[in-house]
Predict the structure.
Amino acid sequence: MTEQSSEKLISIGEASSIIGISPSRLYRWAKEGHIGHIQVAEHGRIMFFEKEIMAFLKEKYQPPRSAKMDNLQAQKIRK
């Protein structure tokens, strides 16, 4: 068993929620090779290693400025 195969797999819905983008955009990015994924079914279902999603989020993805503002506003509202 490889190191990656013992890691947690997450669905496209979970991964897109973590990154803050739509599942369709994440699917497109995966198919274009921007983010690693594995295909788990013949009909095209893909999954992601949680560790890779977190690394992508930390190293490569910069949310749109409006998303950053929304997060800041949400934090103020929660307080």
Remarks:
- Strands lie at 9-11, 38-39, 46-49.
- Residues 39 and 45 are 6 Å apart (CA to CA).
- The chain is about 55% helix and 10% strand.
- The helical segments are 12-19, 23-32, 50-59, 65-78.
